[in-house]
TrEMBL record:
Superkingdom to which the source organism belongs: Bacteria
Domain SGNH hydrolase-type esterase residues, every copy: 170-362
Transmembrane feature ranges: none
UniProt xrefs under Gene3D superfamilies: SGNH hydrolase
InterPro entries associated with the record: GDSL_Rv0518-like, SGNH_hydro, SGNH_hydro_sf
Database matches in SUPFAM superfamilies: SGNH hydrolase
Protein name, per record: GDSL-type esterase/lipase family protein
Length: 374
């Protein structure tokens, strides 16, 4: 059987030097950092991907270690245990020749001997990480550890799987990334949807706060599509949810000025350009209606101007006059029947903007699996 490397976990990343920040960025110095990931698919071997994409200086890694069910081994990079990752670069480990399974949780430990400076990071990691002083790579449990709620160094994983294995990339904002779902349970809606599939799997490239047309938080979707979708090994389908922050963030924090949402025409043109780019690469592209957020606790986010654009964009998506291969009606899956612009109470995370685990499941259950013929 011929095999090849297929993405089994991905983490979309943010520049810690962005001018507009919703999440606290940080660095590390003479510390061991442990972070976990959950594999979406199985293979006969695994390799780990690290990122210094937005670091201003080379990243010194004094050692790396991988743990999981049946795995407890140092990671090497071209045979070396210690390595320096150039600023702006990603790094792929040597293969760990150990079979891995879908749903398996792996822990990646990094010893960071020098001052890393602010790191390439993500807002919603699979689970809360931990950092501890000194080199504790081989310690069964970290001593004097602190919790690290954000993800760092864009940790991803590939598995060596049968050639022809096809996967989907979930691409978009916080509703993709899984903000407000329970850490460590893998309950974002793409993850819960992935558990419904009988073949293939889904990797998550969501960024909380992300937009279609405007940079920060993270590069906008049209700018990051090549790296975060087209470069993902095994991708055949893309599932997109975007728009909440294009419509709501300008009224909450006007960055950049002026604090007004895009027009529906501009947003539709952006979605069309994104779909065309993905179709040109031969991918199946699934769009989705933009979720409800009326009454959110974030001041200024729920503006009449933004809501009007959302209604117009959703009507266009449901009309059939769109470039996508299918539409997931995310909004209908979680809307309050009495007030469709609000999240149903049992699905509301508490902020009126994000869904909880049950809401994410409702979206996953609403997807027609025939649209994901992997």
């Amino acid at each position: 059987m011929t095999t090849t490397w297929i993405a089994a976990h991905r983490t979309a990343v943010i520049d810690p030097y962005e001018g507009f920040q919703l999440f606290e960025s940080r660095g590390f110095a003479d510390q061991t950092l442990r972070q976990t990931l959950r594999l979406a698919g199985e293979g006969e071997a695994v390799r780990i991907i690290l990122s210094n994409r937005y670091g201003k200086e080379p990243l010194e890694i004094g050692g790396a270690h991988l743990r999981g069910d049946g795995i407890d081994t140092p990671l090497t990079f071209d045979g070396a245990k210690a390595v320096t990752v150039p600023a702006g670069a990603d790094l792929v480990s040597d293969p760990v020749e150990q079979p891995v399974t879908a749903g398996q949780v792996l822990t990646v430990g990094l010893y960071l001997p020098g001052d890393t400076g602010l790191t390439t990071y993500s807002a919603v990691p699979y689970d809360t990480g931990h950092a501890a002083p000194g080199d504790q790579l081989t310690a069964p449990a970290l001593r004097d550890a602190e919790e690290v709620p954000t993800g760092h160094f864009g940790i991803g994983a590939d598995v060596r799987a049968p050639e022809g294995t096809r996967i989907a990339v979930a691409f978009g904002d916080s509703w993709i990334e899984g903000a407000a779902t329970t850490p460590g349970l893998d309950n974002s809606f793409p993850a819960q949807l992935g558990r419904r599939l009988t073949r293939g799997w889904i990797v998550n490239q969501g960024i909380s706060g992300n937009r279609l047309l405007t940079d920060e938080i993270g590069e906008h979707l049209l700018a990051r599509v090549d790296r975060d979708v087209l470069a993902v090994p095994g991708v055949s389908h893309v599932l997109i949810h975007i728009g909440l922050n294009d419509f709501g963030l300008p009224g909450h924090i006007a960055f950049p000025e002026p604090g007004t949402p895009p027009t529906a025409a501009a947003f539709i043109a952006g979605l069309t350009a994104l779909a065309d780019r993905l179709h040109a690469a031969g991918l199946t592209v699934l769009g989705s209606t933009v979720g409800p957020y009326r009454g959110t606790v974030y001041d200024g986010y729920d503006s009449e101007a933004g809501q009007a654009v959302r209604r117009e964009v959703n009507a266009w998506l449901l009309s059939g006059d769109h470039p996508f291969d299918g539409i997931v009606d995310v909004a209908a899956a979680v809307a309050d029947p009495a007030e469709p612009e609000r999240i149903r109470e049992e699905f509301n995370s508490g902020d009126g903007l994000h869904v909880n685990d049950a809401g994410a499941k409702a979206i996953a259950d609403a997807v027609d699996l025939s649209l994901l013929d992997l």
